[in-house]
Amino acid sequence: MELNTIGVIGAGIMGSGIGQVSAAAGYEVVVQDIYAEALDKAKASMEKSLGKLVSKEKMTESDMNATLARIRFTADLEEACKEADLIIEAVFENLELKHEMFKKFENSCKAEAILGSNTSALPITEIASVTNRGDKIVGIHFMNPVPIMKGVEIIRGQLTSDKTMETTLAYIKKLGKEPMVAVDYAGFIVSRLLDVLFNETIKLIEEGNMPEDIDKAMELCAGHPMGPCRLLDLVGAEIALHGMEMMERDFGDRYKPHPLLKKRVLAGLLGQKTGHGFYEYK
Ligand code: CAA
User: What is the pTM of this model?
Assistant: First the structure.
C-alpha cells in the first residue's frame, strides 16, 4: 500500500521527531495536538534539529526548507485523521487515553488507513481491543532522539495483518531507519531491557552512588553512548515508571519499580523535560 500522508497525533518530543523524519523522507505530514503551545514547541524543535543537520552538512538548506514545507500543524484531530494514510499516535502513556484516541481514529480515518502507536510499553493487542480494526493496528516504537536513532521497534499485535506489517516496514526503511520486529508483550524488547537497567540504577543511587560515577562507569567500562542516569533523564522518569508498572502487571515482581523512582516522579524530577533530573537542564 502506498503511503502519502502521515498523521502524527501528539506533538511532544517523540511526535515532533516522528513528524520531522517523515517529512524529511518526502511524506506529507500533519502534526496534531490539542495544545497550541505544544504545536509551537514542536515546530521550534524541528527547526532546531534540522538546523543542526544543515550546520553539520548532513542536509542542505533547500532540503530543510522543503521538509518544513511538507509539515502542517493543527489542533483539529478530524483533519489529521481524514487525510492520513498512516496515523502514528504519540500521546501520553495512558491506556484509557490511547483507547479513547483509537476509537476516534476508527471513526474518522479512511477505512484503509494504518493506525500505529508509538507506545513504549503498552501491548498493541490491548490498545487495538477497543476497535474493529485489529488488522490495521501496529506498534511503531521510535527511539529518542528520533532524528538520530537508527532503530525502530515494530510490534505485531495479535490481529495485525501481513499487509500492515509490510507497509509499516517499508515506511521505516524509507525513513532511512532499521526496523526490528518485537513480539507483543508489555515493554516489547527495548523497554523490557532498559527498564531493568533503570530500576537497578535507582537502587545504586539509593545505596549512595553518585550519578556521575554510575554514568562514567557505564560509558567508559561498558561502552554505553550515554550512562543510565543521563539516559533516564533523556527518556523521562515517568515513562520508565509507567513501563515498569505495565511489566509488573504482566510479569510480576521482577519489574516492581523502586519506591525512590516513584518519589522522584512525584517530585517532578523527570529529567530533560522538566529541567530537573539527575542533572539540571536549561
Ligand atoms: N537532531 C539533530 N541532531 C542531533 C539531535 C537532534 N535531535 N540530537 C543529537 N544530534 C546530533 C548532534 O548534533 C551530534 O552531531 P555530530 O556527531 O555530527 O556532532 C550527534 O547527534 C551526537 O550528539 P552529541 O555530540 O550531542 O552527544 P552524544 O555523542 O552523546 O550523542 C546520542 C547523543 C545520539 C543521544 C547518544 O548519546 C546516544 O545514542 N544515546 C543513547 C540514546 C538512546 O539509548 N535512546 C533510546 C532511549 S529508549 C527510547 O527512546 C524508547 C523508550 O520508549 C523508552
Answer: 0.96
